[in-house]
Fold these 2 entries.
Entry 1:
Amino acid sequence: MPSIEKRTENTYRITVSCGYAPNGSKIRKYKKVTLPEGLSEKQKKIELNKIAVMFEKTVINGTYLDGEKVTLAEFVDKWLVDYAKRHYAPKTFYNSKRMLELRILPALGHIKIARLQPVHVIEFYNNLAENGMRLDGKYTIKSTKRALLDKPEVISSVDKRTIERLKSNQTSDIKGVSKIAAALNSPVDKIFDIVDNGKGLSSKSVSNYHGLLSTVLTTAVHWQIIDSNPCERVKPPKVEHKEAKHYEPEQLAELLACLDNEPLKYQTIVNIAVYGGMRLGEIMGLCWSDIDFENNVITISKARQYTPTTGIITKSPKTAKSNRRITISPIVTGLLKTHRKEQLENQIKCGDLWYESDNIFTAWNGELTNPDSVSGWFKGFIARHNLPVITFHQLRHTSASLLISQGIDIVAVSKRLGHSQTSTTLNIYSHALERADYEASNALDSIIYKK
């Protein structure tokens, strides 16, 4: 049985014996417990007994981690395997792991998790906001290292335009120079000079780091490795709410007109995004069996993602309510029919090279298409036609904003978008609601005061 020793008014030490060392001495594990104030003696006893039983169980099972001895980095290794890997979608897992490895662990990973204090967290957030923390700095190659750009391992692994820019004394971003440094198995600063170290992270980015770190530490509390989460005593920077960027009707009409000379696959994808308000991953996950051509209905039951570690995968949509059926325009159905015909023609041309599947959007030979390639194409499409800059995802914002501005019920819009709660739709599209409210007021004027 664990022993419970009172140290101060609300502080206790629980001791569990777990065998003997080779020299015959008892092996003991200790846990410090601080109870909240205001508990009666009976409540304290119940809480302490519960903690002691759980503590003994983790010690016996060999799963106990001592927060006084385990660093944040060591705990994160366990958290990634035992928590994140099981609960996060692959892309969320990849992004969380990257954020931890990129900034959180280099700054805080060496600290024993029980010794992590709010002041450490505050200093970390302040550091993220300093100049140079963003990864969009500009680099030039050192004059003495220029010959390295002609090495075969660089030429075979780096974009030719990046190499030519650096050869002509122009700059490259961190992504380009990192590829070169990796090909040469050398640190970036040994080959390149930084000429612009970029700005600090935005308040939104710092808030994202706060959310991730807090999640990790909350898990440590639940696993009884630490008593409290220091992030709960720190206020992240206030994130300014920005209007969801979108196109106005005239801009959208221009974009759709510019699609005429683009590949049919991309014409279809963009029109589905505009008319259906679907996420890119949901569009790329569509199969022909999901299309009801007779009734102009799409069934959304899966999404496609890509990460460097998993490749292209198919998963369930973002939330339970993302599984949905939406009605689409006959214009979109017509494009899908034409695209289907083109796909069958390509299948005949490819013969045995064709990868048989029910997928709507594939590569030339029927293989799965990386959703990120569509984002890259869309960025180039916008630039080629001199259109106002938006991302592919903002086509979804455009679709929702136009529906709301036309007076479509917010519940219907939320359901169409696949949001888990109507409040999510209200928060994102408050600008469109304000415009609809203004137009409603004008409509009342015309009704009440019409002559």
Note: The radius of gyration is 28 Å.
Entry 2:
Amino acid sequence: MSFLLPLGLLVVFMACVGFLYTEGIWGNFIHLVNVVTAGLLATTFYEPLAKLGENSFGSFTFFLDFLCLWGLFALFAGVFHAVTDQISRTKVRFLKVADDIGSPIMAAMVGVVIVCFTAMTLHTAPLAKNFMDGGFQPEASMLMGTAPDRQWLGFVQWVSRGVYCRGLSSAEVQKGDYKTDANPDEQKLAVFDRLAEFMPKYATRRTLLENYLGDKQKGSYRVADGDLGQRVPSR
């Protein structure tokens, strides 16, 4: 069964190419911008939303991160698609030969982004630490060593250090949500996953879920009040 994960990711990639390759260079360029921006925003804001959701749905703590990631991605992607459809009703024209070659290339780039984002979200899923009979292992580079999950995390971290970075408030500095490192230029920046703790922390979280489900007195995905109530942060 371990082959199902890379097969599933390849299916996602091929589906993206199959649906989009006729959209042309311009249409697929807009799709690419939309999915990249939606993915960045979802990765940036899913954790605050999940923490907010725990106030009302704390017993579903193991589900919130995954659901918030995909919920925000779907919301942002839908909004961006509707907006770009309105403001870009006329496609930029290219030579037919350029469009025939460039369109599937741009569609493939959209597919790569979707695969990378999907692979990253699997770390937050309410599943075992190593699921699909070992097909998913947080320590290993999935999909034939291409490591799409690591690529997405590295990309978001790089962007949060660049033009999309934001400064920390004094309250955030005192709280220590964004740990600092030796780089003085980043002491007061909200760098995503600054210390590369996302994957090991969520591996620990999935281990907690396994142990919780294995407890004969509990054995439920829903967490009782006072039991494992604290989330494992991604930053």
Note: The chain has one domain: 4-214.
